[in-house]
From TrEMBL:
Biological source species: Cohnella abietis
Pfam families: Rhodanese
SUPFAM superfamilies assigned: Rhodanese/Cell cycle control phosphatase (SSF52821)
Every Rhodanese domain range: 18-106
Protein name: Rhodanese domain-containing protein
Highest rank taxon of the organism: Bacteria
InterPro entries: GlpE_sulfurtransferase (IPR050229), Rhodanese-like_dom (IPR001763), Rhodanese-like_dom_sf (IPR036873)
Amino acid sequence: MSLIQVLAPENLKARLDEGETPFIVDVREDDEVAGGIIPGAIHIRLGDLPARFEELPKNEELILVCRGGSRSLKACEFLADQGYKKLVNLTGGMREWADLLPEDERPTV
């Protein structure tokens, strides 16, 4: 069984709309995050993750997000190697997340 699960952006949005507060980690670069971030997410660039992963709760679900899903998958794989078990990759990343929002609320991706 894989330690890495997947979550579609619409399912994350439904969870947020229901009042859940999952632990979301955005691994994009600074300039990408400047265009918008999922509410409540923390920002740790993928390149900084090896130095900062211990800031993340080990026994809590972590939802990783990037622009399209590739970097967040790498982040999940890295965290799995560090012993994290509740890892979720947001499929489609911020590109698909943006499509769920009203046009005037969409982050630039």
